């Protein structure tokens, strides 16, 4: 059975039961308790508390502003943000040392879990680059009705994966559990129930995630003494 087909609905909570075929993997599914609307602000100390997996972050640790994004690799809005808006944020705020940006996984379906697992297995130096590559090629693997594994492997090979390391990654029970824990904590503690969700110094971005809306929030924070 294809390794991705092992990441079924039940595995989002507890891995171990495989599904037959890949047809079900194209749709998202409510694996966790849902909230109609999360809090507008969460405690920064709680938000920044370390988990089992290190944060995937760029920008200085002591930046005045920290943006935390919860995203799913199969989310079209997340793809749009990362391919169009994020490069502007990076150039204007992260590369200039003003903002620290943290990417956290909130997988919405089995394929999103698989992609997130591959990014983590790539290692801290390559994880964000692989995430970028996966978002740029999302249409080739996230929504296709055919087996997505060959395309995912093709992308993963660019990050140094072999067939052996690829298969080993996608059957890593501990890693799956760790990503599930990130998802659970985001939902239960911070009310995250959709992607992308952004917290800027603990405050949820309530507007559309375009550069103009980020500017409106970031510029006043950066102007503070």
Shape: globular
Number of domains: 1
The main pleated sheet reads as: 5 strands, mixed
Rg (CA only): 17 Å
Provide a concise account of the structure shown.
With 225 residues, this protein is α+β, with helices and mostly antiparallel strands.
Walk me through this protein's architecture.
- This protein is α+β, with helices and mostly antiparallel strands.
- It has one domain (about 30-225): Glutaredoxin, CATH 3.40.30.
- The chain has nine helices and five strands.
- The protein has helices at about 45, 75-95, 110-120, 125-135, 140, 150-155, 165-170, 175-190, 210-225; strands at about 55-60, 65-70, 100-105, 195-200, 205.
- It has a five-stranded mixed β-sheet, with helices on both faces.
- Helix 3 runs antiparallel to helix 4 (about 125-135).
- The protein is globular.
Keywords:
225 residues, 9 helices, five-stranded mixed beta sheet, alpha+beta
Layout of secondary structure:
Elements: H1 44-47, E1 56-58, E2 65-71, H2 76-94, E3 99-105, H3 110-121, H4 127-136, H5 138-141, H6 149-157, H7 163-170, H8 173-190, E4 197-200, E5 203-204, H9 211-223
Parallel strand pairs: 2-3
Antiparallel strand pairs: 1-3, 2-4, 4-5
Helix pairs in contact: 3-4
